[in-house]
């Protein structure tokens, strides 16, 4: 047997050109030797290569005899038929007689079709028990099949027939007619043309196995090979339950690592191919498969990073790909494993390295990740280094612990801000981000953008004091100033009994009469417009420009017991210095926690509002409603009526102008 010639090209066009030139070269040589060129063609990408490249080449087409290495058992007008595209794209183009191309007869049964095609071949090769073609142009599938000879199929053992039917092809359509291995091995020249990434790994494995076998890499050059692969499946074993106490701790750790690796691999591929992975479903599947496989002496099932990426790389997209892979693996275990004993280990390693190339190339994203988030960059580096230096399980564990640490760190360093109102709206936004957002006079609206729990309560308290005021420090200051006021009042009583200094914080809390409001009147024939500046009923405590704090709880997903205690302490501290506290946008879960922890004893539910705007309105106008109600109708006497006194109606309602001031509109219906 002549040594194989391996040619590698960068593009499909180069493959097609070299293939067609080689075919013409062999055809002309065969015609010169015995006056005829017998060739077997295959489908797939070869059809395009040959139909585009052969017409126009210099050869005697009348001396060609074209057969098919395999053919799908379908009508000629089917898109799966191999004969029709060659007839139209090659035979008709070069003016070859239709008698020089030999298709199968799909009108016969598949068995009769195979026998009929064998007779056609023997007619061209009279007197030969086994036909000897000048050239067979073959392809190779991703699973390593050629012609319609699939790995593990019984037809691989066929030695009597030259053409055999197949009715259970792993690839559709199931019925085919194919040359057998003896015919393929007896040809003068077999050409395997294979293109595309999907077939590269299988071609590499096949070629490496063949080359290693013929030049004896293991015995002559001491190259490590796969060696013997045991065949068969172990018998079920139910005798190892006594070992459970010894392995239970390791089994739990192994289960955690296996599931973490598998779900991570699944999510990586899901993100690449735009689908979702149900972690609960995966957990149940791994649990069932592990329990069943444990009785068969198999290893615990887990996603293989290398095999998963290899399968994805060769085009596997659904669970059917996994099923086929399992079937092929079963075939290898039961039958064809020994054929790969001469495969060098370095070839398997190279296949894995190439498959993992995409993962290694993710390192190129590190500069971009550094610019986007230093924390995510650090997580990537820690996960990579610990996995490479320690092992997959230890590296994954270290990466998970480090990632949880970053989450705790971020929770302790959550963002907080003060909100302001967008003029003319009920929208409140960060005053440091939105220039138009202005603080409401007399109010402080505080937002802590994380759930409130034991990890970040101190951070919450420190940010609150930093953004607003520290009530503990303020209380000390107020006590000092109160002492000064008391002393000043006492001195004033002695010198001027009629003079008294009164602290604003001790003023009675009562509704402000209408005549104390600032108004601007605009009149017309039948309408009086009164512009009112929004004034708080409550006065601000000493040394403060606000009297109420509103907590925007919309970012809080949950609050634990420690968070409730911290909130109660904060509210109590601010109450002690005369500042009222309100809450807005509390979720249902948070309100349930308030009820369970007796939070309402500190802050009753009348101070918890659906939205920030509702809380602002209540804080501005106090517990009592505004002095004039919306839709109020009053009667007055028209003083300009000279004839007699008549009653007229005046309609009064509120409206907000474009600068956020509340406008009182009075319409007189005369």
List keywords for this structure.
single chain, 670 residues, alpha/beta, Rossmann fold, Transcription Regulator spoIIAA, 4 domains, six-stranded mixed sheet, five-stranded antiparallel sheet, 21 helices, 44% helix, 14% strand, elongated
Please, could you describe this protein's structure?
With 670 residues, this protein is of the alpha/beta class. The protein folds into four domains: 12-195, Rossmann fold, CATH 3.40.50.1360; 360-412, no CATH class; 416-469 and 504-541 and 544-670, Transcription Regulator spoIIAA (2-Layer Sandwich), CATH 3.30.750.24; 473-503. It has 21 helices and 18 strands. It has helices at residues 12-34, 45-53, 83-94, 110-124, 181-186, 197-215, 217-221, 244-273, 279-294, 305-313, 319-336, 345-355, 357-360, 366-372, 374-389, 392-412, 457-467, 471-495, 561-576, 588-596, 612-621; strands at 37-41, 64-68, 70-72, 135-138, 163-166, 176-179, 190-192, 416-421, 428-430, 442-448, 519-523, 527-532, 546-552, 580-584, 608-609, 632-637, 647-656, 662-669. The strands form four sheets. A six-stranded mixed beta sheet has the order 9-8-10-13-14-15, sandwiched between helices. The protein is elongated, with a radius of gyration of 44 Å. The model is unreliable at 498-521, 530-537, 626-648 and 659-664 (pLDDT under 50).
């Amino acid at each position: 047997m002549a040594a194989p010639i391996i040619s590698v090209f960068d593009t499909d066009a180069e493959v097609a050109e070299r293939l067609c030139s080689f075919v013409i070269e062999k055809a002309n040589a065969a015609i010169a030797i015995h006056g005829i060129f017998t060739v077997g063609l295959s489908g797939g990408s070869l059809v395009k290569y040959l139909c585009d490249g052969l017409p126009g080449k210099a050869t005697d087409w009348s001396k060609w005899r074209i057969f098919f290495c395999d053919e799908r058992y379908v009508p000629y007008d089917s898109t799966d038929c191999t004969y029709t595209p060659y007839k139209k794209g090659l035979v008709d183009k070069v003016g070859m007689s239709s008698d020089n191309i030999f298709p199968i007869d799909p009108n016969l049964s598949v068995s009769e079709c195979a026998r009929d095609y064998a007779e056609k071949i023997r007619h061209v090769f009279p007197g030969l028990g086994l036909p000897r073609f000048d050239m067979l142009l073959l392809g190779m599938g991703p699973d390593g099949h050629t012609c319609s000879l699939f790995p593990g199929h019984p037809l691989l053992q066929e030695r009597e027939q030259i053409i055999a039917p197949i009715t259970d092809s792993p690839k559709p359509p199931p019925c085919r007619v194919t040359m057998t291995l003896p015919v393929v091995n007896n040809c003068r020249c077999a050409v395997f043309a294979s293109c595309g990434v999907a077939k590269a790994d299988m071609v590499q494995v096949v070629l490496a196995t063949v080359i290693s076998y013929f030049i004896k890499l293991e015995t002559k050059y001491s190259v490590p090979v796969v060696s013997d692969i045991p065949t068969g499946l172990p018998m079920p074993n139910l005798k190892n339950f006594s070992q459970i106490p010894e392995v239970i701790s390791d089994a739990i750790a192994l289960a955690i690592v296996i599931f973490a690796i598998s779900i991570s691999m699944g999510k990586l591929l899901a993100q690449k191919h735009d689908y979702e992975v149900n972690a609960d479903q995966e957990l149940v599947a791994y649990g069932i498969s592990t329990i069943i496989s444990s009785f068969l002496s198999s290893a615990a099932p887990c996603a293989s990073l290398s095999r998963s990426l290899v399968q994805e790389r060769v085009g596997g997209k659904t669970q059917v790909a996994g099923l086929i892979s399992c079937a092929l693996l079963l075939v290898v275990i039961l039958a064809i494993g020994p054929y790969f004993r001469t495969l060098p280990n370095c070839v398997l390693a190279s296949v894995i390295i190439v498959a993992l190339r995409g993962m290694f190339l993710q390192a190129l994203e590190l500069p971009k990740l550094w610019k986007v988030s230093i924390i995510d960059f650090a997580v990537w580096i820690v996960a990579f280094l610990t996995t490479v230096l320690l092992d997959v399980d230890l590296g994954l564990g270290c990466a998970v612990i480090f990632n949880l640490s970053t989450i705790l760190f971020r929770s302790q360093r959550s963002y907080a801000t003060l909100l302001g109102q967008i003029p003319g709206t009920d929208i409140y936004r960060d005053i440091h981000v939105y220039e138009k957002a202005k603080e409401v006079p007399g109010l402080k609206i505080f937002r802590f953008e994380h759930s409130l729990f034991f990890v970040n309560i101190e951070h919450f308290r420190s940010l609150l004091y930093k953004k607003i005021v520290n009530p503990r420090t303020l209380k000390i200051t107020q006590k000092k100033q109160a002492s000064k006021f008391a002393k000043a009042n006492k001195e004033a009583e002695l010198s001027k009994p009629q003079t008294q200094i009164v602290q604003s914080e001790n003023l009675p809390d009562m509704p402000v009469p209408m005549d104390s409001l600032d108004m601007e009147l605009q009149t017309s024939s039948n309408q009086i417009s009164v512009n009112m500046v929004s004034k708080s009923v409550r006065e601000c405590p000493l040394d403060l420009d606000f009297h109420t704090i509103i907590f925007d709880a919309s970012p809080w997903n949950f609050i634990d017991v420690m968070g409730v205690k911290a909130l109660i302490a904060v509210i109590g501290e601010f109450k002690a210095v005369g500042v009222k506290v309100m809450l807005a946008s509390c979720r249902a879960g948070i309100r349930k926690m308030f009820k369970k922890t007796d939070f309402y004893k500190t802050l009753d539910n009348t101070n918890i509002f659906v939205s920030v705007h509702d809380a602002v309105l209540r804080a501005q106008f106090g517990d009592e409603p505004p002095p004039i109600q919306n839709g109020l109708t009053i009667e007055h006497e028209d003083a300009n009526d000279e004839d007699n006194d008549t009653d007229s109606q005046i309609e009064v309602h509120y409206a907000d102008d474009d600068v956020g001031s509340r406008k009182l509109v009075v319409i007189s219906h005369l």
